[in-house]
Structures are given as structure tokens and as C-alpha cells.
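> call design_seq(struct)
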């Protein structure tokens, strides 16, 4: 018997054991179809059984397919049973609140989670319909839940889904109430998931309580309250939810806050799990906001805003001559921070190691506390260890937390409202967001950021590129000697290279098969000529990008 035959026989036996325990007839049929195509389907079957989806600090995320290495009813049942068991072992009382987006399988996965919770004797509260992730994060705090589950794959491709966990006050503590889990909770939940026995023995209870719209109304009222009640409101906004779940909540929040209701891209307004008008449902991807800027032109908008499909991120586009320009996350982060500072909001301002250093410079000049964390809002909302109350946090990947006491996570709804408040105030003075960016550049220098992103099919390539960086760390960047060359292993797979005027942070993505290099060049505008400083910064950033590409072997 050949090794190949032995492998196929082993895979066939694993698949048969899975079929005996899979509670979903549709996924059983799907897996049987793969088995029927053996040996030709061997590689596909091997991938489906390469190992279980790992429950990490981002929860679960993967392709919708049968088998342990996918998102399906069996995997969700096991995850829910492990989570509920872990909560009981920690002595956490209170309900499990569950939200879901409009992706394929999301409602089914949410309802199964509720049944697992009630089957274990824990109350389960389901959000009333597909809603943004920030509403779930808010609900965990508002309802004093033991924990929360959000079924979403955020801005991943249509064929994916995911499962995120938030902790309540009893286990999350003051800084982590309503926030995503961090170690060691992730390892504890993962161990509890692996300890779950046969799924046929997991008790399923009633479907739980479906919450009413009063929860959504409460979220909208609190969201609208993040902007000052008496500020200018004359602002025309074009908006897209990118076929996600943000439109109804965002437009309600704008109306509640007294803004004109944004114009919504018609063929992207309703939730659609196929995301038919975009090749990739992420506002950062090329072409994703083409329909948005076309609408902005048609209605004469002052501002264009996009949420990602679960509305926890916010993208902003501004007029640039006769066209539109998408602001980088770092630009929006600086604008929001500056706006809050000008409003007199004092407390801790935080961002991540891959974001621009502009926020650090702003806090130093204005005598405000600042902290820098690893990537991810699970870390941002815990910035400073509680020594100072967090008042604002952002990450360059379009995530902003403008009201941590409302939602202790990134929130694309309140971020959009706060950007609108700033834009309306500037419009009343005959100015724009780009004018404010120029003011910041004149004061603190041009902080030009860029990103080199490498998507791979084989994750081993990412490991090889990171090894190459560590083995051949350069002595200079852009001809300047390194002031810092820091490797964050074993805590995090990150390499930081920094000079007096440039920086590169290289790391694998936590949610996609990508290697990312976050680049920044700082160019002073001491002569007051911001356009010239921008030109110099862009040229330097292009050169830095080429240097890092060569370092990665691209």
C-alpha cells in the first residue's frame, strides 16, 4: 500500500467520523460529495481536515465549508459549547448576548449558539435582526452580559464567516467590559472547545429571547450623543454600507443627531451576502467605493463615507479638485483626535505600533497622555493599563473608537458622526477637512504613511519573508542609520525598523493571508510650504517602499 493511499484512507476515515457527528444535513451532503470524488479530491479533503480552526484573540474566521477547518454548524456548536463551559468554569453569571450580520450562515450560527447556551442553563439574548458589530459590543455593556458573541467575518470575502467573543464586566474587568478577548482568555476558551465531546451529546435548549428594537434605539440615542447638540449641521453626505448591515443604523443615528440623512448608494444599500457589486467588500480595496464617489458627485456631497459590511470600520473620501480622494486611516485618526482635543476632551489618546507617529507628536505638544499598543482594538481599549481614562483610540485600518464609554471597540457609526460634526463645523467657516490636514502638517510636519501588502496562497511564504527580514536587517533606511531595530518575538511576530525620519513595521496580517509592511516618512514643513513638504515625503515614501520590497525579496 503506497503512502498516498494510506493518507487517503486516513482522510476518508476522519471524514466518516466527522459525518457521524455533523448536525447539518447540508454540510454532510457537501462532504460526501468530496468523498465521492476521491482520489482526485484528495488535496481538497486534506485541506478541510488540515486541523481545526484555531480560536484565537480574533475568535474564529474561515471559509464556509464542511470539515473542522471551516465555518459550519458543527464547528459553531463546538465553539459555543466550549465558550459556555468556560464561562461556567469561571463563575461568570449573566446572559450570553448574540449578534450576527447578514452573511451566509450567520443567523443559523447565532441561533445555534443561543440553543447551546440555554441547553447549558444560561440565558441567551439574540439581537433582533442582522446588525452592526458595534451594536453587539454596546449590548454586552448595556445588558450587563457575561459575554457576547458576534457572528461576522467583517470585510472578508463572501465565502467566509467568523465568530468573535466579547467579555462582560465580571471577566473583562474595567478596561475590558464589552471588549474583545485577550490572552489568556483565548487559550482558555480554545482548551474548553477542544474538550467538548461528541456533538450529539451537547444539550440544545430553547432558542433564547429575541431582543426588541428598544436595544437598537438605545444604541442610536447614545451614538447620536457623541456629537455636540448645538453645532452646525449643514452637510451633504454620500454613504455606502457595501452590502452590509450598517445603513439603517447609521442613517437613524444621523437623523437623531440632527444631520440631514445621507444619500445611500442604491444598489449597495441592502444587506446581500454575495456582495455583488464589489470584488472584495473592504472599502480599502481598489474599486470598492467607485459607486460611492459617483453618488457623491451626483448629489453634490460635501463628504463621502463608507462602512465595511459589519460597520465597525469607517472610510472617508473628500473632494480633491474635480475628483475624490480616500483619506488614509491615519489621516482620519489624526483629524478625529485633533477635533476631540479642540473640543477639550482630556484623557488618554492611543493608537498602535503600525499607525502614524503624528498622534504621539500631537499629544506631546498638547500635554496629553499617549500610549501605543500592539495591533487590534482588544489592545487599544486596554491602553495605559487604566492609569488614565481612554478617550480616543484608533488604528490605521479604518478603525476608530471616539466614545469608549459607549462602545469599547471600533465603531464605524460613531466615527462617521464625529467626522460629520468636524466637516460641518469646518464648512460653516468656509473650510474643509483637507484644510485642517494642512494645518496639522504645517504644525507637526507631513507624516506620510503607506503600506506594502503581499497576499499569498501559501502561508509558508510569509514565514520565509519574516525570516529573511530577521536574517538581513538593514543598517539604514533611505540612507539614514537605524535608530531602532526591534523584534517583538516571542510576544508578537513583528519587526520594527526606525530612523529619525522614517519607519517600517513588518508583520503578518492577523485576519488575512497577507504580509504587511507599514511605512511612514516624516518631512518637516518648517518653511511653511506644505505642498513642497508633501512632494518630498511622497518621493521618500516611494523610495522606502522599494527598499522594503527588496528586503522582502519581492
Amino acid at each position: 500500500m503506497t503512502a498516498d493511499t494510506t493518507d487517503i484512507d486516513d482522510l476518508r476515515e476522519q471524514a466518516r467520523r466527522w459525518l457521524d457527528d455533523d448536525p447539518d444535513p447540508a454540510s454532510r451532503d457537501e462532504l460526501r460529495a468530496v468523498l465521492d470524488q476521491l482520489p482526485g479530491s484528495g488535496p481538497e479533503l486534506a485541506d478541510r481536515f488540515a486541523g481545526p480552526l484555531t480560536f484565537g484573540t480574533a475568535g474564529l474566521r474561515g471559509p464556509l465549508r464542511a470539515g473542522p477547518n471551516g465555518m459550519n454548524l458543527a464547528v459553531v456548536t463546538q465553539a459555543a459549547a466550549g465558550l459556555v463551559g468556560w464561562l461556567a468554569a469561571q463563575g461568570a453569571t449573566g446572559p450570553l448576548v448574540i449578534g450576527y450580520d447578514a452573511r451566509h450562515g450567520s443567523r443559523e450560527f447565532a441561533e445555534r449558539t443561543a440553543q447551546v447556551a440555554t441547553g447549558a442553563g444560561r440565558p441567551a439574548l439574540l439581537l433582533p435582526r442582522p446588525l452592526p458589530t458595534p451594536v453587539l459590543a454596546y449590548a454586552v455593556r448595556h445588558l450587563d452580559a457575561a459575554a457576547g458573541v458576534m457572528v461576522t467575518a467583517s470585510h472578508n470575502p463572501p465565502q467566509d464567516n467568523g465568530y468573535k467573543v466579547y467579555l462582560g464586566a465580571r471577566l473583562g474587568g474595567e478596561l475590558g467590559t464589552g471588549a474583545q478577548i485577550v490572552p489568556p482568555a483565548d487559550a482558555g476558551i480554545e482548551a474548553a472547545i477542544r474538550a467538548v465531546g461528541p456533538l450529539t451529546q451537547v444539550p440544545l435548549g430553547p432558542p433564547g429571547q429575541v431582543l426588541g428594537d428598544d436595544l437598537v434605539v438605545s444604541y442610536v440615542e447614545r451614538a447620536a450623543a457623541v456629537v455636540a447638540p448645538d453645532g452646525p449641521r449643514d452637510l451633504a453626505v454620500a454613504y455606502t454600507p457595501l452590502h452590509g448591515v450598517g445603513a439603517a443604523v447609521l442613517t437613524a443615528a444621523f437623523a437623531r443627531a440632527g444631520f440631514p440623512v445621507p444619500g445611500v448608494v442604491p444598489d449597495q444599500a441592502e444587506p446581500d451576502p454575495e456582495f455583488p457589486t464589489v470584488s472584495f467588500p473592504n472599502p480599502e480595496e481598489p474599486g470598492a467605493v467607485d459607486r460611492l464617489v459617483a453618488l457623491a458627485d451626483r448629489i453634490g456631497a460635501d463628504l463621502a463615507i463608507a462602512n465595511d459590511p459589519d460597520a465597525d470600520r469607517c472610510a472617508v473620501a473628500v473632494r480633491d479638485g474635480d475628483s475624490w480622494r480616500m483619506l488614509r486611516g491615519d489621516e482620519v485618526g489624526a483629524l478625529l483626535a485633533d477635533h476631540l482635543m479642540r473640543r477639550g476632551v482630556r484623557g488618554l489618546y492611543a493608537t498602535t505600533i503600525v499607525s502614524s507617529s503624528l498622534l504621539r507628536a500631537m499629544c506631546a505638544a498638547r500635554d496629553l497622555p499617549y500610549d501605543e499598543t500592539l495591533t487590534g482594538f482588544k489592545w487599544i481599549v486596554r491602553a495605559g493599563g487604566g492609569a488614565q481614562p481612554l478617550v480616543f483610540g484608533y488604528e490605521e485600518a479604518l478603525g476608530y473608537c471616539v466614545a469608549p464609554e459607549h462602545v469599547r471597540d471600533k465603531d464605524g457609526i460613531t466615527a462617521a458622526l464625529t467626522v460629520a460634526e468636524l466637516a460641518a463645523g469646518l464648512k460653516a467657516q468656509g473650510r474643509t477637512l483637507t484644510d485642517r490636514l494642512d494645518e496639522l502638517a504645517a504644525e507637526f510636519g507631513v507624516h506620510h504613511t503607506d503600506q506594502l501588502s503581499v497576499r499569498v496562497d501559501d502561508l509558508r511564504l510569509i514565514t520565509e519573508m519574516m525570516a529573511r527580514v530577521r536574517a538581513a536587517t538593514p543598517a539604514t533606511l533611505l540612507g539614514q542609520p537605524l535608530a531602532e531595530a526591534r523584534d517583538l518575538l516571542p510576544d508578537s511576530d513583528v519587526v520594527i525598523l526606525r530612523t529619525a525620519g522614517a519607519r517600517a513595521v513588518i508583520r503578518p496580517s492577523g485576519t488575512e493571508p497577507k504580509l504587511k509592511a507599514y511605512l511612514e516618512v516624516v518631512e518637516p514643513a518648517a518653511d511653511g510650504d506644505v505642498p513642497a513638504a508633501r512632494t518630498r515625503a511622497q518621493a521618500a515614501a516611494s523610495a522606502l517602499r522599494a527598499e522594503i520590497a527588496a528586503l522582502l525579496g519581492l
